UniProtKB/TrEMBL annotation:
InterPro entries: Beta-gal/glucu_dom_sf, Galactose-bd-like_sf, GH, Glyco_hydro_2, Glyco_hydro_2_AS, Glyco_hydro_2_cat, Glyco_hydro_2_CS, Glyco_hydro_2_N
Organism from which the protein derives: Oryzias latipes
Protein name as it appears in the record: Beta-glucuronidase
Domain Glycosyl hydrolases family 2 sugar binding: from-to ranges: 41-225
Function (record text): Plays an important role in the degradation of dermatan and keratan sulfates.
Subcellular location as annotated: Lysosome
All residue ranges annotated as the Glycoside hydrolase family 2 immunoglobulin-like beta-sandwich domain in the record: 227-328
SUPFAM superfamilies per record: (Trans)glycosidases, beta-Galactosidase/glucuronidase domain, Galactose-binding domain-like
EC number: 3.2.1.31
Regulation of catalytic or functional activity: Inhibited by L-aspartic acid.
Single biological process term from Gene Ontology: carbohydrate metabolic process
Length: 630
């Protein structure tokens, strides 16, 4: 549905009001970009590392390791950033380490950052898993709870205390999960000394991927002028061939500032401009943002340049920030998902940030390879199961037209104690951090607040009503879902979502070995859900483990043949229901991935259609052929 221009303006103003009230977080989280007024200094590479192996895991704090160079406190090793630390060494105690680890990096800050006090210097951590405390030159600058999302701190004053510009960054990161973290976990001490050594404990987790830890995404320093563009929110729409970009800019460091907003096409030609902190840009002959394979020119992005000019008694400031903007709409009916008013079918995958050696560390060769594989497969979408992925990946999605269901780390909420107020407050903050970071990505078309929570438990009703409502308030322009696995009749989250997303593993976890049950059970499942809620359905997970290279015919579980037939049997039902209310199918999983050790996992989860090294199993060709046909 396209809104008339006046309603657009009203909606933008209303959005502004919503964004301004009831928020738990202060300030924006724009991706750091260089411009004529901003510099970026990446700190990727080797950092110094020490795990605190003391029984209490508190030695580092007791001895204040942040006050001097880490190597002066005891033995240190080299670790790369970004990367998980778990698979870097030959030491099983590091792989399975739980508690505080300490990272340190020394650098020299450019002289003008020190001398020029009209410059603001910010330290940003793309993500660190899970709880982080950060010091610069021994001074505490910030702490953050939660992996998968960025955090930052202004460090201008701290670095100016040392005129030589020498800067020592210390980051302590703790991967301990509790019943109140997202995802939740629980430490259990084993006190039977006839069976376990002194101090023995394990961390129980309720999710099926390895709890990789460390600094997973780039750490960097960047600058802005003292008066700066703090945040930008865009909402897009179109009417006939006119594109509409409603924007709101928030400014910090100046009481008044002049703002000029210019929208440029790919060739750098100005297509619309405006002045002031909010407004609507009208783009004639708009080139809409289309998903991959739905248009000859998918992923079209404009550039929105925001130029700020401000002055105080002493000096003038100019700040420039350029945001990529894709113009598109998203709407949901009881049977369809519409992008730009056209029905969109999610031909997609579920992924993990996971690979050999790096664990969950951001890795450009892997990212580019995965996008090439998505295209080879003919996939147009993925879900960020089960946590927010790196911003760099979403930027690729914007540019290539890959549609994203953006998921919070609300995975494994299974214990009734994880539905209390502390958990709920944290979940609301995480949703704010997620929406704040990803709201301007054209590729992001839906928020997922959780995966397979124990939603039949009584407190789940209030919990998910609150989280979903808050997410809708934060962003009224995108649908919200959560991923269900439990019985449709008892599910406490489904009434509040816009799209029903369901995971099931017929002929695997239920009726193992009986491929013939898939069509009847899947059909029953769909009819029940749609009959009850009258909402469109996405098959958000389906699949089977296949150990690559293992072949048996007639098929048995764990062979490539079995995985293929599971997929084919699901596809028969998808093709019937697609004509009615099924709006997507996301295979579990794109690639094999590491899990915790256990009797149901053979060096990780093998439900990938690609191996962990990104080589195709037989099932990958089934999907590739299928996507060609549709
Ligand atoms: C699903 C979970 C996913 C697991 C998958 C499996 O959402 O995280 O990896 O099962 O068991 O229910 O393979």
């Amino acid at each position: 549905m396209c809104l008339p221009v006046k309603r657009q303006v009203l909606r933008a103003l209303w959005l502004f009001a919503v964004l301004d009230t009831g928020l738990l977080l202060d300030g924006g989280m724009l991706y750091p970009r260089e411009s004529s007024s901003r510099e970026v200094k990446e700190l990727s590479g080797l950092w110094v590392f020490r795990a605190d192996r003391s029984p209490s895991r508190k030695q580092g704090f007791d001895e204040a390791w942040y006050k001097r160079r880490l190597e002066e406190t005891g033995p240190v090793i080299d670790v790369p950033v970004p990367a998980s630390y778990n698979d870097i060494t030959q030491d099983p105690a590091i792989r399975d380490f739980i508690g505080w680890v300490w990272y340190e990096r020394e650098l020299v800050v450019p002289t003008h950052w020190i001398r020029d006090d009209t410059i603001r210097v910010v330290l940003r951590v793309g993500s660190a898993h899970y709880n982080s405390v950060v010091w610069v030159n021994g001074v505490s600058v910030t702490q953050h709870e939660g992996g998968h999302l960025p955090f930052e701190a202004e460090v201008s004053d701290v670095i100016r205390k040392d005129p030589t510009g020498s800067c020592r960054i210390t980051i302590a990161v703790n991967n301990t999960l509790t019943l109140q973290t997202l995802p939740p976990g629980n430490i259990q001490y084993m006190n039977d000394r006839t069976r376990y050594p002194d101090g023995f404990f394990v961390q129980s987790i309720y999710f099926d991927f390895f709890n990789y830890a460390g600094i997973h995404r780039p750490v960097l320093l960047y600058t802005t002028p003292k008066a700066y563009v703090d945040d930008i929110t865009v909402v897009t729409d179109f009417s006939d061939n006119t594109g509409l970009v409603s924007y709101i800019v928030s400014v910090k460091g100046a009481v008044t500032a002049a703002l000029k907003v210019t929208l440029m096409d790919k060739q750098g030609h100005c297509v619309a401009s405006s002045n002031g902190p909010f407004g609507v840009l009208k783009v004639q002959d708009v080139k809409l943002w289309w998903p991959y394979l739905t248009h000859e020119n998918p992923g079209y992005l404009y550039s929105m340049e925001v130029r700020l000019n401000a002055a105080d008694g002493r000096t003038t400031y100019e700040d420039v920030y350029t945001l990529p903007v894709g113009i598109r709409t998203v709407n949901v009916t009881s049977t369809q998902f519409l992008i730009n008013n056209k029905p969109f079918y999610f031909h997609g995958v579920n992924k993990h940030e996971d690979s050999d050696i790096r664990g969950k560390g951001l890795d450009w060769p892997l990212i580019v390879k995965d996008f090439n594989l998505l295209k080879w497969l003919g996939a147009n979408s993925f879900r960020t199961s089960h946590y927010p992925y790196a911003e760099e990946i979403l930027q690729m999605c914007d540019r290539h037209g890959i549609v994203v269901i953006d998921e919070s780390p609300g995975v494994g909420i299974k214990d009734i104690r994880s539905f209390g107020n502390a958990s709920l407050s944290h979940h609301l903050i995480v949703m704010e951090e997620l929406v704040r970071r990803d709201k301007n990505h054209a590729s992001v078309v839906m928020w997922s607040v959780a995966n397979e929570p124990a939603s039949e438990m009584p407190p789940a009703d209030y919990y998910f009503n609150t989280v979903i409502k808050h997410t809708k308030d934060l962003d009224p322009t995108r649908p919200v879902t959560f991923i269900s696995s439990s019985n449709f009749a008892r599910d406490k989250g489904a009434p509040y979502v816009d799209v029903i997303c369901i995971n099931n593993y017929f002929s695997w976890y239920h009726d193992p070995g009986h491929l013939e049950v898939i069509p009847i059970q899947l059909n029953t499942e769909y009819e029940n859900w749609h009959g009850k809620y009258k909402k469109p359905i996405i098959q958000s997970e389906y699949g089977a483990d296949a150990v690559p290279g293992v072949h048996v015919d007639p098929p048995v579980m764990f062979t490539e043949e079995y995985q293929k037939i599971v997929l084919q049997n699901y596809h028969k039902v998808f093709d019937q229901k697609r004509a009615q209310y099924l709006i997507g199918e996301l295979i579990w999983n794109f690639a094999d991935f590491m899990t915790t050790q256990g009797v149901t996992r053979v060096v990780g989860n093998k439900k990938g259609i690609f191996t962990r090294q990104r080589q195709p199993k037989a099932a990958a060709f089934v999907l590739k052929e299928r996507k060609k046909l549709s």
